[in-house]
Structures are given as C-alpha cells and as structure tokens.
Target: Flagellar hook-basal body complex protein FliE
Amino acid sequence: MIVNGIQNIGSLNLDKIKEVNQTLDSGQVNFSELLADALNSVNADQNYSTEIGNAFLLGEIDSVHDVSIAGMKADLSLNLAVEVTNKLLAAYSEIMRLQL
Model:
C-alpha cells in the first residue's frame, strides 16, 4: 500500500508545527505552557469571531462567508478545548482511583 503525501496544506501553520516538533525533540516540553497557548488560541478565535460579527452587523464588511467561517472556527476550537478538558479530568479521576 502506497501512501501519498498531503498535497494542499496551505491552511496549516507550518512554522508552529516545526516549533512544536523542535520542542518535542529537545525534550523541553512544558505542559502548562502548551495548555496556556492552546487556551489563548481559543480565546483569540472567540474574540475574532465577535469582532468580525460586529463589523458585519455595522456594515463594515460584506462577506457573510468570512463571518460564518470565523464563527465555526471559534465553535470548533471551543468544543475541542471542552473535550480535552473532559479527557484530562477523566484521566485525573482515574489516576486518583488507583490503589498503590
């Protein structure tokens, strides 16, 4: 079975991926910083969605597509953050149930 590479990855932030890979390779992973960066990204998506929605309501922009894309991106990032939080809490409670 032959697996071909991804042809169109224009929407990915390659610099951020390279930075994460270098951090993982160097062994300097700080979980709290990764978590804080992810939550800041979710917050930025939410703020951008609100700003672009307000700009659309005021008539400053005409593209409904940009507004809906920003809203969906904010919704997806928030849902992902909630799911990750739920998984972390479930893992923590499972660890606390372990008997040593």
